[in-house]
Amino acid sequence: MEKGMPVLKASRIFGVPRQTLRDRVKNVVSIDCVTTGRTPVFTLEEEGYIVNHIKSMANLGYGYTRQEAVDIGTRFAENLGKRKHTDPLTLRWFSGFVSRWPELRVLKPRSLEHLRAKAASPGNIQRYFTELDGIIKKYDLTDKPHLIFNVDEKGISQCHSPPHVVAGREVHPPAVTSGKSSTTTIIGCGSAAGFALPPYFVFQGARMHQDLLNGTSPGSNGCVSETGWSNSSVFRQYLEEHFLRFIPREDRYVLLLLDGHSTHISVGLIEWAKAHKIILFILPAHTSHILQPLDVGCFGPLQKIYNFECHKEMRLTASTISRYNIGSLASKAYTKALSPENLQNAFRKTGIYPFDSSAIDGTILEPSRVFSNDLDVKNSGDNACGPAEDEHTVVHRMTDFLAKKEATLISTKSEKQLKKTERKCLSKLTSGRCITEDEVEQAILNYKKDTSSRNTKNAANKKQDKGPILKEKEEATRVSTLNDSQTAGPSGAAVTHKPWLDDWNSEELDIEIREEEKCCVCKNFTPDAVRQSSVLQFVKWGKCNACGHWVHLRYCSKTIAVRRGAEFKCIHCS
């Protein structure tokens, strides 16, 4: 056709219908169109910009639903002048759009907590790997995977989640479970070499029975707690009685990676670890879903295998899942999930062993972009969806519309972060740090001292700044408890002595009360009528707008109540 060949001759030579060829020559149908039917609203280039924008928003953690994608397409078409506001796109357009782009699919995203999305930033991850690399080299653990361990807790319930089953299409079948139950915690630990310590169970209860460990793996142990969850004393007991029994003792340092839960950090635990040559390294806060080996490669399979074992147990036996057989079922799942292959892959995937600071996939860190305070990151969306604006006016219009949406999201989230003030907390000192190092331990000690003195000072200030109304309530409580002795009444029953019936002295009751907190009329904190009453009463106060003194309402003033914002004056100023 470029050499001037007639359309009819070209259609005969190449076997293309004449009308089809003529429509493309006259640009009635785009040359890029390879399907029959109605011509798409957008060209492939324009649809490419939409695809890139949809994928970018999904990677940031704020993806579009079907209808939202249709709305984006409608506004994009309006921006290009291809549609009017009264003629929007429909879900039928979306179906064709997805069929033309196989890289897109509709799926349910996994939940990601706000704190996890914010904490998993490239800067935090890089600082963590730099710190970890220094510790590994300092203690000569580069080629010693059998001395690198990770410990974590996993909660399981007697009421399991049923696995997928095969059933007929006509019904949605039920799955019988044990019902409401308590939580049992498994403390698991494994090394980069693939060695898994036997499980350690924390049952809910007040007294430990050995029957709870029937059928568990050899070497398994356990204890009880009030809630079934681990705590500081349970974790300390685990390290002393269970962890030390199974780790290699070659008079060499052992690296133990763990999350920054409060039960894992204490001054006493740090001193104990240093005495036993155990290096405690705290993972960065809220990043265990990408940096903790057991969370990344072991506890997910453990939960699925445990659910399968419980489902099988309920079908093959007459018993339900209880605290007496949950240990044996969990041990089977623990042994399969914490296999040597899974442990080695988990440590490799998290970049711990072999050490690799680039092991974390960059797409996992994308949600943290919206919380960045870097202005370059905020404005990076200007050219994120296509070529530079000076190439073509239409191209600029396309890229500008979609890029502004992403830039608006990033600027909104990051501006909110700029307004927040940094809180002083323990995790700021321990996150991504080795707490057995001297400088970190000293920082923790200083934080504990500052927190203790600050709490004491706040309590003293709170007690000193109590207003007259609160003091009135406290005085009533104090007076009612001055004498707890009981005397026999007329019926022979013991009655509590009421000290407010006695003739109390005004100075005795008003002790430790400042002069400005007393009534400016009667010069007492408690009116005489209330003091001499046999019934416990609370006194209302009013503050004079003229002199600023407090007055007893009803007793020392004709006013019974003062509404908020109303004018009130004492008898001296009225």
Overview of this protein structure:
- With 574 residues, the protein is α/β, with parallel strands linked by helices.
- Among the domains are: 114-162 and 180-364, 2-Layer Sandwich (Nucleotidyltransferase, domain 5), CATH 3.30.420; 435-464; 466-483 and 495-574, no CATH class.
- Helix content is 41%, strand content 9%.
- The termini are far apart.
Helix content: 40-55%
Beta-strand percentage?
5-15%
CATH architecture tag of the domain at 114-162 and 180-364:
2-Layer Sandwich
Give me the oligomer status.
Answer: single chain
Described by strand count, sense and barrel closure, the largest sheet is: 6 strands, mixed
Mean pLDDT: 84
**CATH homologous superfamily designation of the domain at 114-162 and 180-364:** Ribonuclease H-like superfamily/Ribonuclease H
Task: Please tally the helical runs, counting DSSP H or I stretches of 4 or more residues.
Answer: 21
Distance between the termini: 105 Å
What are the segments in which pLDDT stays under 50 over at least 5 consecutive residues?
375-391, 479-511
- Which fold name corresponds to the CATH topology of the domain at 114-162 and 180-364? Nucleotidyltransferase, domain 5
Please state the overall shape, judged from the principal axes of the Cα atoms: extended
